[in-house]
Amino acid sequence: MLIKVAHPFPIKPSEITPEVVHADRRRFLRQAGLATAGAALFGYGPAKSVGAEAELAPLNVARKSEMAGGETVTPYADITHYNNYYEFGTAKEDPSRNAGRLRTRPWSVVVDGECEAPGHIDIDDLLKPQALEERIYRHRCVEAWSMVAPWVGLPLADFLKRFRPTSKAKYVAFETLYDRQQMPETARGVLDWPYREGLRIDEAMHPLAFLSVGLYGRVLPNQDGAPLRLTLPWKYGFKSIKSIVRVRFMERQPEVTWNKMAPDEYGFYSNVNPAVDHPRWSQAQERRLGELFKRKTLMFNGYPEVASLYTGMDLRRFF
Ligand SMILES: Nc1nc2c(c(=O)[nH]1)N[C@H]1C(S)=C(S)[C@@H](COP(=O)(O)O)O[C@H]1N2
Ligand SMILES: [Mo]
Question: Is residue 50 over pLDDT 60?
Fold first, then answer.
């Protein structure tokens, strides 16, 4: 019998190049224009009935926080039309076009491994009694673009503690849904599916680590990782795994997608660090969506409160 085995990585890591690095100027100007128009349309506040977000259910946000130092929030149109979600295609506009196929109900998350109360939780059981919070966070992609987004969700620690991790739980691993029917792009095998990410337990329990279920006061759009995703503002965007179906407490460091694919380019920690360049481009600057000029990238993306997690570690080695 002939078994056809697809090459696991038909796209070489070296062919994945940050769009902004070679973004031609025309395209960028067009995008900047779109951003400005978007800002004029909705500004920021609770999402108004303009555009696609109006169809998504509003969430009951009990608490709001200012975590981005009063920076301008990126327009909804940009946050939802310039995405990385490779299960729905590798171009930035692909997820907004293709993620409509994703069915986000029913949805349950399996939690197991080194914990006293393993099990699964239905997304609606998680949301009902939960007082949701809004966090305005900077988000810095490893590809050197950035945005500021108003997420709605709960501290990741609150979610994880429900399952009572044991003292052996030194790491937490996360997995995205992998369903070829809903995600036909996964047939191309760009990444080794399912998409996997992981954190050290103290990183996962840090008060900044957030589990997002909404954006701009409403349920998350599929392209942004519905129905639940991580949001880790001090790390490069790829650590913020989308559409999570599985969480596992582990004694050893889990294998994670991008590190496995290109270990010299993407470390396990992936903390935003302007002093440690990616082998193929600088990480010292970034382009905020909707802005023309680059700005300086800040250590830990401007969240110095996480520095104590890494005391004594050589951040060039543990990048
Ligand atoms: N499952 C999954 N999660 C993912 C990705 C992905 O391709 N698949 N892309 C990551 C990357 S590289 C970034 S920058 C962020 C983008 O999140 P956003 O589209 O909501 O801005 O999602 C991250 N989470
Ligand atoms: Mo990213």
Answer: no
